[in-house]
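User: Hey, my collaborator sent me this sequence without any context and asked if I could get a structure. I don't really work with proteins. Can you help?
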Amino acid sequence: MQTIPTQPSTTKQTWLKRRLVYRITPAMLILFAIMLLSAGLHFYNISAIGDANDYYTAAVKSMLQSWHNFFFVAAEPGGSVSIDKPPLGLWIETAFAAVLGVKGWVVSLPNILAGIFSIPLLYNMVRKHTNEVAGLVAGLVMAITPIFVATNRNNTMDGMLVFTLLLAAWAFIKASERGSLKWLLLGGILVGLGFNIKMMQAFLPLPAFYALYFFAAKIPWGRKLFHLVLTTVLLLVVSFAWVVAVDLTPADQRPYIGSSDNNTVMGLIFGHNGISRLEGKAKANSDGPQDAKSIPNNFALQNNTPQPNNERKPLPAAIDACIDANIDESCSFELPNGQSINGLCIHSAAQTTLICARPDRPMQPQPQPNNAIDDRSGGTAFSSETGQPGILRFFTAPLSKQMSWLLPFALISILLALFSARIRFPIQSRVHHALILWGGWLMTCLIFFSMVSGIFHAYYTIMLVPALAATVGIGFSIFCKLSKHHTWATVGLILATSITIAYQLYAVWSYGENAVLLLGSLVLLVIGIFSQFSLFVKKRLACVILLAAMLVIPLFWTVKTISTTENQNLPTAYSGSLQNQRPNPGEALPENNKVSDLLSFLENNTQEMKYLAAVPSSNQKGSELVLATGRPVLFMGGFNGADDVVSVDDLSSMVSADELRYIFSGGDKNNKADISIWLQSTCTVIPEFSENANINKSNNNTGPRGDSLTLYDCQ
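Assistant: No problem. I've predicted the 3D structure and written it out in structure-token form, which is a compact way to encode the shape of the chain:
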């Protein structure tokens, strides 16, 4: 029998070539283009990041100096106090800094990479339940959402949290498809890791994850309940492992737990990072130390003037400067020492009328000592950044600019997906699977953040972005598919798009933006409407035109966000033309030689000492000194001055042991009377480095903080 010769190598190469060509689909090419767009948005103008959130950047520099600091996430090299967050995100940032150096863009890089690679992850999950069109739209929407890009271009760790939760969602999808305990346990582990990035914020999508498994997995109900109980146990073990390890460590062998009421991580979890987020019941004089420096620099309030309920009385000149003025109108007045203050007319909890104040960043709230009542005629703390609690919170300024641009379409999409198939238990429809996961995630976060009245920064809204993008993609895909055969679907798509664009234009108007480019959304909308009924345009192209119409304004807003340098400590979206037209109300930055003289003075006179200096808080000169020198700096009051990190006896002992010589005191926040009295009676004032001896960097546009600190020599 004759043997036919073969060419195995050639055959194999041909098979691999065909396989490669088969795998590279148009959808994959589009997805790659979206990732390139995302990378461009994330890396453009990266120098504007500066030191990023210098509270966390200083912690990374501190953590690199010892394993002790690394494990306990010490806020400064001396290990006096810890950061008010769990360790995992900061550990990752420290690993990057160990290789690339301590720079703002380096410590932000993990979040940037997490943001870019979240796109294919979201695409694959949405595509699994619907189709490629839905997945691509979801990835594109997430890539151009302003707060998604702004937050990832920072080291606040929320980008890493979102990526971790997307991985958890992927595991829960696998578990629901297979009724598999091992995939379910993996999902629980990933959520537990998310807890070790931002604590209980990681639990927000958990109801949607559990509901997906409970209603979609095709196994007996009792077994599903048992699986979920086991998963919860494992999740809690992973979540609290580091917490228990730290709390079991004797207090004298670890840093003080920053922002806690009782020097325990448990107290931090359920206090500042728990109840304070819901109701704003934080420690006295702190609002709870915020995730970054959100206490405004305001000379409109008289310092050291005792008032009922710990309120500070506005200066008469600050009140007179805003008589007959409108809110946010420019104003100026003179301090008793003759210094001229330029600012804006704002509300204060201490005054029913407007006062002229110089905020660190526009529209920041005034700190309130014992409650959450704040800056806008009895409003809620942080209302200047996130608005008042209520159902309209996400649809009105100042929060609407963050991620709400496509929220109307997303909510309409949830209703469309709900009625797109018959509901059966266990849930059979894959669209309903997607609805449980993404709709549940979106609505849980939307309701939660609409109701909270405590500590709520605008960048927390990144938590809604994946679910928002997914629901928009799903709804768009369903509309386009049905519009090929049903006129009602065509009309529905046009109405949903028109409502969304109308809302976008309203939001744009509320921020005073008037760029002609934004009219492109209206032009595309009109073209898209006519295309839907044209016999010469394919339905798919007509749908794409309508989608493009909805994406013009969000993309514009994202580009403007990365083109500005505002709010590096607290990530936020572009604030609009009205915001940019405001005068820069801050006083001039200190001269570089003044800063150098201060640093040289401290360095030269503390060579043999443990601490470069002691400061009231990391927010009052502390983080800047750490970043400038890498030396231990004693944060006497933690992040915001409210923590009892050291006592007068502790300071006296350190001075006697030649560990500490120079102590900064004063400022307008959280002064401790016993320490002030001890300093005045024991130490000597150094006039040339007192009174507003800021060392803020010119590339950090939060501006000078007006610390008004006095430097004491205690030896």
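In plain terms: The chain is about 50% helix and 5% strand. You can pass these tokens on to your collaborator as they are.
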